[in-house]
Structure formats: structure tokens, C-alpha cells
Design goal:
The chain is mostly helical. It folds into two domains: about 15-115, no CATH class; about 115-150, no CATH class. It has five helices and no strands. Helix 4 (about 120-130) packs across helix 5 (about 130-140). The longest helix has about 30 residues, at about 15-45. It is elongated.
Length: about 150
């Protein structure tokens, strides 16, 4: 039987973990800001903003200085389509719920598909314990079965 494939760990060092965490934080912040702006414009004016995720990251960077009027963090061409602070608060809460739900779903999926050292993978269990594999190994386990023809 061929050896099981070795799984390489994604996080082999602390540097890898810090880099992955940093990129994840930047992606969540920029996507969250983009989704908040889009939902705010949709709730208040019924249309999507022509904003990119990069523009949203810039808006998120400026937002702490413009917390009293979040529209000022966004480019001037988009401000007329954005609501006031209450509209942004509602849109931000909805966007946060969506992002948390997506992250929980991805985390649940990742935990269910990670290799665990010392345990067989699903493919290894299927290859070893399936009905076909057991029948194939029957003559080795019970040599007396060599005389009888086994179903395939």
C-alpha cells in the first residue's frame, strides 16, 4: 500500500501566522467597510455605490477622524448617496452580522477539513475499510478463502 500523502502545515512559523493574521484583518476591515458603505447607500437611496474595496479601505482608515459624520470619510463623489451616522450605524451592524456569519461558516468548514496528526483521513479510512477493500484483503486475512471464489 502506498504511503499516505503528507500534509504541509499552512502555518509553519510565527512569521507565517502573523502574516496570515495581518492579511485577514486587512481583508475583513476593507470588506466590512465596503459592505457597510454599500448597505448604507442601499438603505438610504436604494442604489449601490461605485466604490472599490480599496476606496473602502481608505474610508475605513479615515473613519476614526470623521466618526461624527461618516460620509466625510468617503470620496466626495459618493457622499450625496450616503446617509448620516444613524444610517451608517444600522448598515454597520447588518454588515457585521453578515461578516461574522461568513467567518463562522468558514471556520467551521476549515476545522472539519484539517488533517490531524495520528488520525487517518477520510480517504484513508474509505480505502482501507470499504467493502471493496475488505473483500480484496480477505485471502490475506483468511487464507482458507483462497479456495472459494469471492464476489467482486
Amino acid at each position: 500500500m502506498p504511503p499516505a500523502p503528507q500534509h504541509r502545515a499552512i502555518l509553519e512559523s510565527a512569521t507565517d501566522a502573523i502574516l496570515l493574521l495581518s492579511l485577514t484583518v486587512i481583508a475583513v476591515i476593507s470588506t466590512g467597510a465596503w459592505l457597510t458603505g454599500q448597505l448604507a447607500a442601499l438603505f438610504s437611496h436604494g442604489k449601490w455605490l461605485p466604490a472599490s474595496v480599496g476606496q473602502s479601505l481608505t474610508a475605513a482608515w479615515r473613519l476614526p477622524g470623521d466618526a461624527r459624520d461618516p460620509r466625510r470619510a468617503w470620496p466626495a463623489s459618493m457622499r450625496p448617496d450616503l446617509p448620516g451616522p444613524i444610517g451608517f450605524l444600522i448598515a454597520g451592524m447588518v454588515a457585521s452580522l453578515v461578516i461574522v456569519a461568513i467567518m463562522l461558516g468558514l471556520g467551521w468548514w476549515a476545522l472539519g477539513h484539517r488533517p490531524q496528526r495520528g488520525f487517518a483521513s477520510r480517504a484513508q479510512i474509505r480505502d482501507t475499510l470499504s467493502e471493496r477493500a475488505v473483500i480484496r484483503r480477505a485471502p490475506v486475512v483468511r487464507p482458507s478463502l483462497l479456495k472459494r471464489r469471492l464476489p467482486r
